Amino acid sequence: MTIAPGRFDRLSAVHFALIVGGAAAVIAFIAPVTPSPERLAEGTPRLFGLLGRMWPPDMEPDFLVRMGWRLLETLQIALAGTLIGVVLSLPIAWLASRRLTPVPAAAFLFKALISLFRTVPDLVWALIFVVTVGLGAVAGTMTILVDTIGFCGRFFAEAMEDAEEDPQEALQALGAPRAGVLLAAVIPDALPSMTGTALFALEKAIRSSVVLGLVGAGGVGQELKSAFDLFQYQKAATIMIAIFIIVLAMEWITDRLRRRLQ
Amino acid sequence: MALDAVRAAADPVLTARGLCVSFGAAKILRDISLDLNNGERVALIGPNGAGKSTLLRALVGLVPSTGRIDAFGRPCEIRTLRQEVGFVFQHHALVRRLTALSNVVHGLMHRPGGWRAWHQAVAPAAFREAAMEALALVDLTEKAPVRVDNLSGGQAQRVAIARALVRGPRLLIADEPAASLDPAAGHDVMARLADTSGNRTLLFTSHDLDHARTYATRIVALVAGRVVFDRPASQLDLSDLRGLFPDRAA
Questions:
Q1: Is the confidence metric ipTM above 0.85 for this complex?
Q2: Is A185 in the B-facing interface, judged by CB distances under 8 Å?
Q3: CA atoms within 13 A on the CB side of B147
Q4: Residues A62, B56: Cα–Cα separation, whole Å
Q5: Which of A6, A29, B29, B75 is the most buried (most CB within 10 A)?
Q6: What DSSP designation does A200 have?
Q7: Residue closest to B107 by CA, chosen among B159, B39, B72, B53
Q8: Phi, psi of B221, deg, nearest 5
Q9: Residue A78 above 80 pLDDT?
């Protein structure tokens, strides 16, 4: 009878000690921030208490109208920030794309700019813009704009670099300028991928714009923060349900658009 | 007409002297000298890896080379040369998501107003008309609004020929234009290329000796990056080919 090899590679004592030691170090590192069973046991009744105070959601007409305007402002922030961000992402992605950039020496600078925009969290950008342009929706739009450039800039540059090279070479051979090659060959080929990215950016922007109000950057988040600060949990519940519906609706719309474009 | 007589009456379109191309340590082209004269149809033949495609690319500056290239009797300036050349690639190299018309309009990007030639919808009316005339030359006017990814391989290659012709080039270069097509479509593409080249100079590479003999007036053979013979197609001897394609010339 042929004997199959063992299921696992045999571990040396040193390897075994290292694995056990590593696992212990990770557990010790995350333990202070991990919810303990006691904390969870204490928190669960409080959660149900909060849910009880949220029910029924506030349906007072004046409040619903005010919330409706705030939701509209949230959508305006998301749409304006995404649209401007997508438009600005195109030249930035082109300049950052190593293979296509007209200024190869500066490509890394634009790549670094995109990384900076992407890696700083949107709430931090919102705080910066609240200080620089003041409280309100414009700070929110600026935040979404920067966040969109960080997101779209990276994926647009990748889509451009992945575009089919033969048509680009053909246009070069015909004497087309770099910008002509970009518009005629690169963008048409990268367009489905770029459109998908832009729609994801819009979805992301709507989720982000909801929370920007927490730091004073406009939108329905400001209303939500006031409701929690003033212990108006029924109003908070209405806002959260409205946000949930809006985000779900936008995901449904962008999913359908993406499928149509493919 | 004997080759010497042709050269004597030559109106040089392109002259290469001592052309060399290397990729790292690999020498792809070694000391190539080639004269292309007005109205000639020249087939460049040779086995795989002989350097045929590299030579075509080097002539229009798509790969870096050393040596001297004169175009139209003057030292070559790549930008100017490209404006006078129509290039047809092996796998059409069209933008698949755009229509045949947009792709042909692309051929006019070097002209004044060419910044609008990236799409037929925004191109000047004169560009659209010229593109339709070029499509008519390859019998594809009815395919003008059709996206390239909905065309057959032969039709796409004809669109690529139209993109090259719309420029009214003095030199038409085609890199294995029939290689990816079935025999009938291959002959159709080659015949159109030869017919529509008119008084222009045509330089094409081919693995198909039948294409070379039928559509070229002159044949240049390349082996391991060197020109091994250069003679009128009518004087081609089977013994010439034995070293190049032993299996086919036997």
A1: no
A2: yes
A3: 8
A4: 75
A5: B29
A6: H
A7: B159
A8: -105, 140
A9: yes
- Most A CBs within 10 Å, among B118, B171, B172, to test the A interface: B118
Instruction: DSSP for chain B, please give it.
Output: --HHHHHHT--EEEEEEEEEEEETTEEEEEEEEEEEETT-EEEEE--TTSSHHHHHHHHTTSS--EEEEEETTEE--HHHHHHTEEEE-TT----TTSBHHHHHHHTTTTSTTGGGTTSTTTS-HHHHHHHHHHHHHTT-GGGTTSBGGGS-HHHHHHHHHHHHHTT--SEEEEESTTTTS-HHHHHHHHHHHHHHHTTSEEEEEES-HHHHHHH-SEEEEEETTEEEEEEEGGG--HHHHHTT-HHHH-
Cβ–Cβ under 8 Å, residues B81 and B74: no
User: Using CA of residue B223, residue B227, residue B231, residue B233, what is the dihedral sign?
Assistant: positive
Measured distance between the N- and C-terminal CA atoms of chain A, rounded to whole angstroms:
55
Q: Residue B23, SS3?
A: strand
User: Distance between CA A119 and CA B249 in Å, rounded?
Assistant: 65
- CA B171/CA B188 separation, integer angstroms: 20
Beta bridge partners of B175: B205
**What gap in Å lies between CA B230 and CA B217, rounded to an integer?**
11
Tell whether A164 is within 8 A of chain B (Cβ): yes
Whole-number Å distance between alpha carbons of B63 and B54: 7
pLDDT digits (tens, 9 = 90+) for A1-48: 788 877 777 778 899 999 999 999 999 999 989 988 888 999 999 999
Residues in contact with B242: Cβ distance below 8 Å, sequence separation at least 6, in sequence order: B249, B250
Superfamily of domain A60-261: MetI-like (1.10.3720.10)
Angstrom distance (rounded) from CA A256 to CA B138: 40
Q: Are B232 and B2 in contact (CB under 8 A)?
A: yes
**Measured between CB atoms, does A163 come within 8 Å of chain B?**
no
Choose the weakest-confidence range: A5-14, A145-154, A177-186, B205-214: A5-14
Which residue, among B18, B1, B17, has the nearest Cα to B9 in the 3D structure?
B1
**Interchain proximity B95–A185, CB inside 8 Å:** yes
Determine the residue of chain A that is closest to B175 in CA distance. Answer: A170
CB pairs under 8 A between A and B: 77
pLDDT digits (tens, 9 = 90+) for B99-120: 999 999 999 998 888 889 999 9
* CA B110 – CA A25 distance, rounded (Å): 65
Q: What is the pLDDT of residues A88-138, one digit of tens each?
A: 999 999 999 988 999 999 999 999 999 999 999 999 999 999 999 998 899
Q: What letters, b where the CB count within 10 A reaches 16 and e where it falls short, cover B196-213?
A: bbeebbbbbbbbbbebbe
Cβ distance A180 to B114 less than 8 Å, yes or no, reads: yes
